[in-house]
Amino acid sequence: MANLLIIEDDELLRDGLSAQLSQAGHNVTVAADGEAGQSLLEGHRFDGVVLDLGLPKISGMDVLRWVRKRLPALPVLILTARDGTEDRVQGLNAGADDYLTKPFDMAELQARLAALLRRARLPAFGGSLEVANTSARRLRVDATLPQAWLGDESLELTQREWALLSLLVTQAGRVVSREDVLETWAIEPGDSVTGLASNALEVYIHRLRRKLADSGLNIRNVRGLGYMLETTAP
User: Fold this and answer.
1) Which domain holds residue 114?
2) Into how many domains does the chain fold?
3) What's the pTM?
């Protein structure tokens, strides 16, 4: 299941897309023009966008360029009646991840969108890392930007807190050593600042534990080895 935003000014098509994608299990939000779509993107987290190019108020191409500056890892699938090669090239060069011309087959759109969402969840492609737990407030960490969420609530993280949390999430259920963290922080284990960084690590662990309170997750101190992100007993 993904949180999707559809930005499309054709009401009939917009409603049809929303119904089909909702039926497929996604949470769908819609916008009828570029201005409304951009406003939603500024205030909410989405896993993917279906974007029409021929939009009122702010063009789809301008929305796409804005997305690539602000949300570089967000998957964007363009829908447009413009079927010329030049238009497709322009859209892809502006940062679209995929391109469908109208009219299109709904099954193909869903397959292409599913492929984009799968790829976006892989760390090598950016996107978000997620930890499964029994809490309704799932933890998601952006793999390319210092951002993370508990459910729909954004976490305020420093660059080091985000780097530490990202490492713990990718190794969830396994021990992460202090040396691993120092490498992530770009501090060589043999440097003279290691002792200071090692002491500071305890402070960052304490901060993250507080921010993960009531999330169903815990950072456990494994004596002599390091730290482990684990789910807590219900």
Assistant:
1) 3-120
2) 2
3) 0.55
